[in-house]
Each structure stands twice: as C-alpha cells, then as structure tokens.
Amino acid sequence: MADYPRFGPAGVPPSFRVLKASLMDVPRLLREEGLDAFEYQAVRWGVKPQIRREDAEKFGLKARENDVAVSLHGSYFMNFCGGKETVDASKKRLIACATASEWMGSPLVVFHVGFYGRKSPKQVFNECLEALKDAVSEMKTLGIKGVKLGLETMGKVSQFGSLDEVLGLCEQVEQTQPVIDWAHLHARDKGRFKTVEDFREVFVEIEKRLGAEAVKNMHCHFTKIEFTDKGEKRHHVLDEAGYGPDFELLAKVIAEFRLNPVIISESPILDLDAIKMRDILMKELKC
Ligand SMILES: [Zn+2]
C-alpha cells in the first residue's frame, strides 16, 4: 500500500486522549506529528463489529484525507488452534474485524493465530491451515475482497506464530500476509537480533518463500522488549538501554533494500517512538 516507509502508533496515543480528541480527529493529529499510519485496536471485540458502519466509513475518509494508512488489530479473543467451538467463535470474530476493516478502507486485519495447548506444533499448524482456509472462503462469500488477514509473529513460546509457521500458513492460504512483530521474534528467539545480518536474514527468508512484493510492502510492529525463557514479558521505550532489538539496525536494512514497510510502534509511548523511528530511518536514507 505504501510507496514509502510509513510510521504510526498501535492505537490512540495518550496525548491525544488528554486533548479529548475523538477518533475522527486522530488522522489529522497524526498528520500534524508527521506520522502516516495508524493501527485501530479492535482487540476486545466479540463476534460483531463494535463500531457503527457510518463511523467506520467516516474515519476511513478522514484517514485518506490526511494520507494516513489504516490497519486494524483484530480481537485478542481468537484461537484457531482450539476445539471446534473455539475455532467457530474465532472465525466469527475474525469476520467481524474484517468487515469493519473493509468499512474503514483498511487493507489488513492483524491477528494472533492461537495457542498450542497440549497439541503438537505440527498438528496445530494443520488445524490452523484448515480453519484459516475456511475463514477466507467465508470472507469471499461475504464479498470482503479488499482485506487481507495479517498473521502476526508471536512473542511467547506457548503461542503459535514462529516466523516459519507464519510464513508456512501465508504460503498456503490466499488473502494472507505475514505481520512481522520484531519484538516478538526477538523475545521468542531469546534475543536473536544483535547485528544487521540478523535482521537481513528475516527479509531474505520472506523473499525466498513469499516473493519480493511481500518484503517490499511489509507490515511490521516494533518496540523494545524484555523477555524470559517463556518469551515476551514487557514492552520498553526506544531510549531505554539494556533492551533490544535496536531499531537502528533494522533501519539500515530497510534503507539498504529501499523497502516501504508500514511500521507500527507498540512502545509504551506509541506515537513519540514512532516519530523517533521515522527520524532514525530518514537519517539512514540520507547517508
Ligand atoms: Zn498483536
């Protein structure tokens, strides 16, 4: 979607809330900060969209007027690795999110696929594959064509969503794309991003398996993260020493390959770190 790198927050920044800004003001306020992406948080939604269609459409219009690229983060209450009832309810939630996403003109619903539970990773992979194929065919039946499912790489070892698993599903399910949450990969793989080469490897792997377009317009989440043996523990701000990954290393690879990712800041200070990341990348692009 983007023809240049875009940056924005995951949800409405705290400073906008202080201003008592409504959702409709968010695109303009982001634009004033020089940001151009926004991930709407539908993370507590049930089986129906919790925004009225006319509001979603109006919000989408405001976003387009301000050239802010919108994505939607789907409900946390989904698990495509569970029993039949859980999977059916998850499908309904996913469809509700995709429906609202289409109303907003957002091309992507980001979501967490699920938890392994007691099943083996292989069995879980196969079950998710079938469930997501079903969900996509239902989206097609409903005429939801402009929205892709964004499968997020996950930060806890109990969660389905290693890079390999996400790419494996994206290879086989239409209307999907990977969402690379760098902090999650860093936490899951116990601090894997130490050098520019560690980041480059991920891009090379995605290009090999999904093609050059998948890399060029990648959708990412970024924050610094604290982790334990079980993976993700807590998000940290960009300036905090002692935590990774280092955005400067990622910026070098984005500049080297001239990529146009959407980078959503999930730092505790959302928009302020989005601005910081944007400035780091701009500096890299000028060298
Ligand atoms: Zn997420």
Structure description:
By secondary structure, the chain is of the alpha/beta class. It has eleven helices and twelve strands. Strands 1-12-9-8-6-4-3-2 form an eight-stranded parallel β-sheet. A two-stranded antiparallel sheet has the order 5-7. It has a two-stranded antiparallel sheet with strand order 10-11. The two termini are 25 Å apart. It binds zinc ion.
CATH top level class name: Alpha Beta
Number of domains: 1
The name of the CATH architecture is Alpha-Beta Barrel
Q: How would you describe the shape?
A: globular
Unreliably modeled segments: none
Mean pLDDT: 95
**Tally of helical runs:** 11
- What's the Cα radius of gyration? 18 Å
How would you classify the quaternary structure?
A: single chain
Order of helices and strands: EHHEHEHEEHEEHEHHHEEEHEH
Please name the CATH topology. TIM Barrel
The biggest beta sheet, please? 8 strands, parallel
β-strand amount: 15-25%
Compact overview of the structure:
The chain has helices spanning 14-18, 26-32, 53-65, 84-104, 121-141, 163-172, 182-188, 196-210, 212-216, 247-256, 270-286; strands at 6-9, 37-41, 69-73, 108-111, 114-115, 148-152, 159-160, 176-181, 219-222, 224-228, 231-236, 262-265.
